[in-house]
Amino acid sequence: MAARLSLKRKPFLKWAGGKNQLLEQFEQYFPGELKNGKIDRYAEPFLGGGAVYFSIIKKYKIKSAYLSDINKDLILTYSVVQQKSEYLLDLLEQFQQQYDAAKQEKRKALFLSVREQFNKQVYEIDYGRISENWISRAAQFIFLNKTCFNGLYRLNSKEEFNVPCGRYKTAAIFDADNITSVSDALQNAEISLSEYRDCYDYVNNNTLVYFDPPYRPISRTSKFTSYTGDVFSDARQIELAEFYQKLDREKGAKLMLSNSDPANIDPNDDFFAKIYKGYNINKVYASRAINCQAGKRGKISEILVTNY
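Given the sequence above, the corresponding C-alpha cells read:
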C-alpha cells in the first residue's frame, strides 16, 4: 500500500500557473547535489499548488521542507491535509456525493451555497491556530477549487471569493488515495503562513530553494494582481532578486526561480537579465495564454534562474 500511495502524490488543488507541465524540463536543471543526496532540505516560499515539491519528494531523499505562502486559506488547507486528513476526507466524500447526484442547475445552487458559507465563515476563523472549523473550511476550499471556473482563486474588494461556478461533467472533489498520500508527504514539512523572506532562518547550504513568485506581466495590457489582491510590482520583483542574492551570498543554498520571459513580447526587455546578472538564466517552454484570448494560447518561454 505504501509504495502505491507514494506514486500517487500530486497536487490536490488546481492552481493558476501550476508547474505540472514543466516538471520534466525542470528535472534537467535540478542541482547535482539533489540527485546525489547531498541536498536533504527543501524550501518553497510561494507554494501554490506545490507541484515541484511533490515531484521532488517522490524521487529524492528530502528529510525536511519549509512550505509557505501568504494565501491564508491555502495554508490553512495544507495544514488540515497534513494534520486532519481523515476528517477532511469525510466532508469531501459528502461533497462528492452531493455534486454527483445533482444536475447542472442544482450543482450551481450547491456551489453558490458553499461559496456563501465560505465567505461568511472567514470572520469565524483564527488563522493562527488549527481548530475544528479549519476542517470544514478546508473542505469548502477544495470543493470550490474543483468546481469553480478554471480552478481560479480570486477575491473581491471585500475579500470574498467571487469566482463563478464552472460547468463540468465530473469533478474530482474526493480523491482519498491522493489526499492520504499527500498528507504522508507533508509530515516532515513546516507549513507556514508567511512572506518569502521568512524562509531565511530555515535555509542552509544543504537546501534547495525554489521561488515561484507572481509572474511579471509580459504585455502592457496585462492587468496583474496576485490571488491575495496584492500587486507584485517591478519594485517587488527587484526586492525578491535582492533576497535571492542574499541567500546565495550568506547561506550557500542552491536556488532556482521561475518567472515570465519578456522576450515573448519584447526581445529588448532586459529587466530580468539586469536584476539577476551573474546568474544562469535558462528557458523552459509552457502552454499558456499570453492574454485572455483563447486564440493566443500556445507555447511560450519562461525563465528559470539558477545560482549553480
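The beta strands are 41-44, 64-69, 189-193, 207-211, 254-260, 280-289, 297-306. Try to locate this feature in the C-alpha cell string yourself.
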